[in-house]
Amino acid sequence: MSLPPEILKKVKLLEISTRKLVNNLFAGEYHTAFKGQGMTFADFREYVPGDDIRHISWPLTARTGKPFIKKFDEEREMTLMLLVDVSGSTDFGSQNLFKGEAMAHLAALLAFSAAKNNDQVGLLLFSDQVEHFVPPKKGHAHVQRILRDLYYYEPKSRQTKLEPALRFLHGVLKKRSALFIMSDFLDSQYDEALRWLGRKHEVVSVVVRDPLEKKIPALGLMDLWDNELGDVITVDTSSPAFQKEWEKLHQEREVERDRLLKKAQVERIDVWLNEDLVDPLVKFFKKRKHR
Fold it and tell me: What does DSSP say about strands 68-75 and 38-46: parallel, antiparallel, or unpaired?
C-alpha cells in the first residue's frame, strides 16, 4: 500500500523526534520499569554460605560431592501492547496538538522504547469496536508499520466504547504483557473488563485531556460540534448559566472517570495537552523503577 507523501513526512518527523527522546531520555527508564516474564536457568556454581538452599542442585551435588546451586537470569523480553482510542472525541484540541495526535506521539515513544529493548510491541486501535489490530512483533520495520497505522488508519466509527477492545485483547493475548491504554476515557461501564484484564496483564491507563474541556473561554456566540454524534449546537459562551453548566458537566465526567478507573484498580497517567507530554511518562517509569 502506497501512503500519501504528507503521511510519510509526518511518520518520518515523528520517528526522528521520538528516537531522539528514546536515546537521550527514555529507554533506560522503560527498561527498568517492568520486570521480565520469569527466570531462566543460566549455569551452575558452587554453593557459598548465604545462598538460597532451594536452588541447590541435588543431582550435581551427589555426583561431585560438593554442593552446587543453579544460577538464573531474568528473562527480560516482554510484550508491550498499545491500545489507542481513535473515536471522534480524540479529534479535539485547543493547544498545538489534538488529543489523537498526542496519543500517537506517546504510542510512538513507547514503541521505539520497546524496540530498543528488543521487546515485542503490538497495536490495537479502537472506537466503540475493535478497529484495527497489529499482533506484537519485534523490529524497527514493525515499529514503522505501527506509526503508519497510527496516522493513516481511517476509523469506521466515531463512537467510544472501551469494553469490546478490552475483551478482545483478553482473548488474543496469551502471554503476560504490559498494556498502555491511551484515551480520554469518555465512556462508562468499562471497569469490570478493565479489572479483568489487569488480573493477567500489567495495565496502565493514559488519560489524555485538554484544558478547554474543563473551562471554555467567554467568547460570545459559538457553534459547538460533537465529534462523536455529529451534532452542532449554537451556544452563548459568555452566559454565566452556560459557563456553570459546562463546568458542572466536566466535573461529573471527571468524577465518573476517576471512579471507574479506581474501581478497575489499574495504574494511571494523566497527560494534559497544555503541558509537557513526555514528563508524566518519565515520572511514572521513575516511580515504578523504585518499587
Answer: antiparallel
Sign, CA dihedral 9-10-12-16, equals positive
Q: Is the pLDDT of residue 163 over 90?
A: yes
Tens digit of each residue's pLDDT (9 = 90 or more) over 85-144: 999 999 988 888 999 999 998 998 899 888 888 889 999 999 999 999 999 999 888 998
DSSP secondary structure, 201-263, as one string: SEEEEEEEE-HHHH-----SEEEEE-TTT--EEEEETT-HHHHHHHHHHHHHHHHHHHHHHHH
Residues 272/211, Cβ–Cβ less than 8 Å:
yes
Cβ-contact 207, 194 below 8 angstroms: no
**Nearest CA among 266, 258, 137, 259 for reference residue 200:** 266
CATH of 5-33+77-289, one of 3.40.50.410, 3.30.300.30, 3.30.40.10, 1.10.10.10: 3.40.50.410
Q: What is d(CA 145, CA 233) in angstroms, rounded to the nearest whole number?
A: 39
Name the pTM for this structure: 0.80
Query: Where along the chain do its domains lie?
Result: 5-33+77-289, 39-74
Residue of 122, 91, 270, 263 lying closest to 190 (CA atoms): 263
Neighbour-count burial of 290, counting CB atoms closer than 10 A to its CB (0-12 exposed, 13-18 middle, 19+ buried) = exposed
Q: Which helix (H) or strand (E) holds 42?
A: strand 38-46
For 266, the grid coordinates are 489499574
